[in-house]
Specification:
Chain A: It comes from Aphanothece sacrum FPU1. The structure holds 2 protein chains of 2 kinds. Chain A is mainly alpha-helical. Helix content of chain A is 57%, strand content 4%. The longest helix of chain A is centred in the C-terminal third of the chain and has 19 residues. Classes of the chains: A mainly alpha, B alpha+beta.
């Protein structure tokens, strides 16, 4: 029997999705990402049009990845 | 003596947009540059979104319009 995904925290949904990654059922993952997308903290990226823009975006990406560690 | 082996290969056909495919390639390369392992990469055929779980707690969403989200 599947757990009630709505009652699970984001961390629990992530763990469940990773443990069941060989299955094609995406319900847990879809719910996790729909929650995250509506989160105002989400940072939006666009495809870079110039090399400078790409470099700037990558620097921001690196900073965000580093920040997640702390 | 002959053996007959039947194999069913199940594969979901995915149709990403050009922008989405490019964004996914870029995201995966950047994660690699940052020494982050990609644990899960999935195309959702219902919503058309790509879900990426990487590192300890990195979540990236790449919708079909090519704009992508770091969450």
């Amino acid at each position: 029997m599947k757990p009630n995904f709505e009652e699970m925290t984001n961390a629990q949904l992530r763990t469940y999705a990773l443990e069941h990654r060989a299955e094609e059922d995406l319900e847990a993952l879809r719910l996790l990402f729909s929650r995250l997308k509506s989160d105002s903290q989400a940072i939006k990226f666009d495809l870079p049009k110039t090399q400078e823009e790409e470099q700037e975006q990558f620097e921001l990406f690196k900073r965000l990845v580093e920040k997640k560690k702390t | 003596m002959y053996y007959i082996i039947c194999v069913t290969i199940e594969a979901v056909i995915i149709n990403p947009s050009n922008e989405q495919a490019q964004a996914c390639l870029q995201v995966c390369q950047w994660l690699s540059n940052c020494y982050k392992d990609i644990h899960l990469f999935r195309f959702d055929t219902v919503t058309g979104d790509v879900y990426i779980l990487a590192g300890d707690e990195l979540e990236i969403l790449v919708p079909s319009d090519g704009l992508w989200y770091f969450l």
